[in-house]
Amino acid sequence: MTEDRYARIYALAEPYWQTRSNELHVPESYALARELLDEHPEADPDVVLPAILLHDVGYLVVPQEDLLKGLAGAAKGWEPDITRRHEVQGAALAGEILAEVGWDPARTRLIQEIVDGHDSREHALGIEDELVKDADKLWRYTESAVRICHDWMELSPDAYMDWVQSEIDAWLFTATARTLARRELAHSRAALAAEPVR
Question: Is the pLDDT of residue 115 over 70?
Answer without folding.
Answer: yes
